[in-house]
Amino acid sequence: MKSKKLQRVDFIFDCAGCEPIEVVKKALKMSREEVVSSIIESGLKGRGGAGFPTGMKWKFAKDEVADTKYVICNADEGEPGTFKDREILDVVPNKVLSGMAICAYAIGSKEGIIYLRGEYNFLLPKLNGQIDEFNNNLSKIGLDFAVSIRSGSGAYICGEETALFESMEGRRGEPRNKPPFPTKSGYNGKPTVINNVETLVYTAMIINMGVEEFKAVGTMDSRGSKVFSVSGDTPKAGIHELELGLNVADFVEEFGDGDTKAVQVGGASGHCVPRKLFKETIIGFEGIPTGGSMMIFNSTRSMFNVLNDYLEFFAEESCGQCTPCRIGTQQLIKGVEQVKRGEMQSEYLDQLIKLTETMKIASKCGLGQSVANSFSSIVTNFREEMIY
Amino acid sequence: MKNYICYSINNTLNQFNMADTEKLVEQLVTQHGKTRNSLLPVLQGVVREEHFLSDTAMIAIAKALNLSSADVYGTASFYTFLETEPRGENIIRVCKTITCKMKGKQQVIEAIENHLKIKEGETTRNKKFTLLAANCLGWCHKGPVMLVNDDVYPHVAPDQIVDILDKYC
Ligand SMILES: Cc1cc2nc3c(=O)[nH]c(=O)nc-3n(C[C@H](O)[C@H](O)[C@H](O)COP(=O)(O)O)c2cc1C
Ligand code: SF4
Ligand code: FES
């Protein structure tokens, strides 16, 4: 597969030529069908991790007949190594709000809600003021839609869309069975579009600059650009918007410290890419998709410690609702520790990989299903570090 | 004796009288609405004022929202920030996830432990501070990071701890 060269892009934070409320006005001049088909044509996929085509999501919600529909902005950003949604909401909140308003117009919704993780409560005073002002502007241009904000209370699982609805309905954040999907039955059992903070900004930018300009960036499978959260052993820790479709080698060339041993793409629930696979691994939906978390590890780091850290994270954040995930995460921690202490043969690691495969099939939501990603990629590529 | 108040033993803090708690719940329910959808905002409101959810508070909330108190406790106990055990007036959360671990979160925790004379998970005797470890706080590029209540301290160094915590005394 051919990869793209590393290319910096500035759609998200650049504000020249983009007055958010004017973008909403522009959308209002289009028909609802035109708005939805523009987003479909753009090829935009969700930036929250799962990568569902955004335009299709909007279309499903638009086609539902209901008295009430909701637009929800998922700002629960809890994946280890991700911090871009905080920055987007801090620096360009009006762009997020205009994406929500455009979606509301397209699907026929009057109520929008931002679910902000509790750890980001410091944003609230400023954000509340900006929301009030934006709501005012919306009513001035004749769009009957208003946004409000809800705080989380320190649970990573509430970033999962159906757990988030449960939380907003005053319940434990335990994911629901799907189907029904949120576009049919989401918050309060009503048709709901839930999108990541960054996805919503891109929808507004697509309306603003046109489908073709957006499509010109990225690849067939991964249209456009992506905001990456870069951390770990790097001299350039921070937030960087890059064209999708680059390979890990070029990424490391730009962001590594010269001694990069592995890159964890997509956070604890993502994949670990070892040095020998840098060149052939593409960052994007054709390779490894990511919510934007890029953690760089150099040769001084123990990958056993990295894996252990992720496993502890999962064991703590598992909602405990289904057995494969609740028990599985705990057994994995026990298992890798036993191998490390020499109480179990190294072949036991293969048993544990099988366990993660079972968890992938049998777990109810993305948390339990994705433990296999980091587990097998780290154990397979750094087997000797797990044992000695 | 700059830190006198930080060490002084004053157990009158953090004691709320039943009538006040019930009044607070009533206010919050009026503000957010008398439906189950308001449960989290109401619980969060009580924690903001009283630093934890007492039995009194949970029973009052259950009554006001027409839920069983077991249901209220069951929901609250799911969420890390909805404390059901007495906590200090100020909650310190130090990120313990991998990037912050690599950038020295342990030294930060030790500096806090030494200064406040408590261990991770404990509350000072005067109920001023509780020290907790947290999962990724969303500042990994500026680790180690800690929260004191809603305030964020990115790139926090062990030698800044005394000055930072003094602000909350
Ligand atoms: C355990 C778990 C945690 C998640 N956390 C988040 C999150 O913090 N933010 C987010 O946007 N999506 C998160 N998601 C994905 C959401 O369920 C959902 O797919 C997403 O918000 C849809 O928006 P998008 O299509 O714009 O990406 C999470 C999923 C799982 C399984
Ligand atoms: S997979 Fe884990 S987090 Fe998801 S529903 Fe099951 S127990 Fe809960
Ligand atoms: S790892 Fe500490 S803030 Fe993300």
Shape of chain B: elongated
Helical segment count of chain A: 15
CATH-defined superfamily of the largest domain in chain B: Glutaredoxin
How many domains, in number, for the residues of chain B? 2
Based on Cα principal axes, name the global outline of chain A: globular
Run of helices and strands of chain B: HHHHHEHHEEEH
Oligomer: heterodimer
- At the fourth CATH level, what is the homologous superfamily of the largest domain in chain A? NADH-ubiquinone oxidoreductase 51kDa subunit
Distance between the termini of chain A: 36 Å
| Total count of strands of chain A | 9
The description of the largest β-sheet of chain B is: 4 strands, mixed
The Cα radius of gyration of chain A reads 21 Å
What does the model show?
The complex is a heterodimer of chains A (388) and B (169). Helices cover 45% and strands 14% of the residues of chain A. Chain A is an alpha/beta fold and 388 residues long. In chain A, strand 2, helix 6 and strand 3 form a beta-alpha-beta unit. The longest helix of chain A has 18 residues. By secondary structure, chain B is an alpha+beta fold. Chain B has two domains: 61 residues; 77 residues, 3-Layer(aba) Sandwich (Glutaredoxin), CATH 3.40.30. The N terminus of chain B is likely disordered. The complex binds flavin mononucleotide, iron/sulfur cluster and FE2/S2 (inorganic) cluster. Flavin mononucleotide binds next to strand 4 and helix 14 of chain A.
